[in-house]
Amino acid sequence: MLQTTYSSPLGQLILLADSTALLGLWYSDQAHVGAKYRLATIEHGTSPILQQTSRWLDAYFDGRKPAIDQLPVHPQTTPFRQQVYRVLTTIPYGSTMTYQQIADQLTKRNGHKTGSARAVGGAVAHNPIGIIIPCHRVVGANGSLTGYAGGLARKRYLLALEKA
């Protein structure tokens, strides 16, 4: 694994990848930074995946709407959270979805009740690949901006960038 930093309009981002996929993207000062990884022990450097991620972020912050599937991402987490993150990747650029809508989609996909809006909220809060797996596109039941590990000001910025 290697990590690098990316200077975004919202502050320093930490990018983490192995030889096959992006494993993490966090604001350096956010809640849950580093997830399960001990970032202090991981070498700083560059790799094709980290370079590709930086180019993706350049395009995103320039408003060019890069596709999520342009990057190999592999969040290391529970099966439930993996399902939530797959739903997040289907929320179109410039759109939002509620926690309950995500829970409803999981229930429909699995053919049985699969988590609650609260459980989805827990998964979203611990998203290890922020921005790219767009947890900022998740809003409260009434459309209100609710928690975001990077802070609500950053969430507002990202949604405004996307004209959501």
TrEMBL record:
One of its GO terms (molecular function) is methylated-DNA-[protein]-cysteine S-methyltransferase activity. Keywords: Cytoplasm, DNA damage, DNA repair, Methyltransferase, Transferase. Residues 1-74 form the Methylguanine DNA methyltransferase ribonuclease-like domain. Transmembrane segments: none annotated. One of its GO terms (biological process) is methylation. The active site is at 135 (nucleophile). It catalyses: a 6-O-methyl-2'-deoxyguanosine in DNA + L-cysteinyl-[protein] = S-methyl-L-cysteinyl-[protein] + a 2'-deoxyguanosine in DNA; a 4-O-methyl-thymidine in DNA + L-cysteinyl-[protein] = a thymidine in DNA + S-methyl-L-cysteinyl-[protein]. Belongs to the MGMT family. PANTHER family: METHYLATED-DNA--PROTEIN-CYSTEINE METHYLTRANSFERASE (PTHR10815:SF5). This enzyme catalyzes only one turnover and therefore is not strictly catalytic. According to one definition, an enzyme is a biocatalyst that acts repeatedly and over many reaction cycles. This is Methylated-DNA--protein-cysteine methyltransferase.
